[in-house]
Amino acid sequence: MKEFNITVPVVELSYDELTAEERRLVDEARGATHRSYAPYSHFHVGAAILLSNGEVVTGANQENAAFTVGTCAERSACFYAGARHPEARFVEIAVAARGTDGKEVSDPVAPCGACRQALVEYEVLAGHDVPLLLVGKDRIFRLPSVRSSLPLAFSEF
Ligand SMILES: [Zn+2]
To answer: Which of the residues 28, 74, 104, 123 is marked catalytic?
Structure first.
């Protein structure tokens, strides 16, 4: 038997400590929270993905009365990026949220497991690590890659 630990390196930053490109990405993610359709959870999530062609693609959670057909912000952005810019590769991702009170959440939110799995595949396609910014009002976490948020991801690669 062999036991090993998996660690996730997380850097906590303030908005001012981000690069200019990251601040743009965070702003886009925060803006996208206002385009969510969340009449059931009232939890508004926005995601922004910087692509290798310089474009920033955003997504927001889209709920449905039939709950399981709704889509998270991250997959909404991810699949739109794949459909709109199939030649581009992911460079960096930011995720932000507003809570049921309509205000930005204080602590960062993380993508659900399904979104992490979806995003890992696009990171594999990129051929390099794709940093993940998890955005809260007071703190921002930077993970070095999507895979670091889902260390034992399912993959055929
Ligand atoms: Zn999700």
So the answer is: 74
74 belongs to the catalytic site: yes
CA of 21 to the centre of ligand 1 (A): 24
How many angstroms separate the alpha carbon of residue 63 from the centre of ligand 1?
A: 12
Report d(CA 92, CA 109) in Å as an integer. Answer: 16
In CATH terms, the superfamily for domain 11-149 is Cytidine Deaminase, domain 2 (3.40.140.10)
Per-residue pLDDT tens over the stretch 36-82: 999 999 999 999 999 999 999 999 999 999 999 999 999 999 999 99
How far, in Å, from the CA of 39 to the mean position of ligand 1?
A: 17
Distance CA 139, CA 157 (A): 34
pTM of the model: 0.96
* Domain extents in the chain: 11-149
Report whether 58 contacts 77 (CB < 8 A).
Answer: yes
Return phi, psi of residue 134, to 5°: -105, 115
| CA 118 to ligand 1 center in whole angstroms | 9
| Residues 73-132: tens digit of each pLDDT | 999 999 999 999 999 999 999 999 999 999 999 999 999 999 999 999 999 999 999 999
Rg (CA), the chain: 15
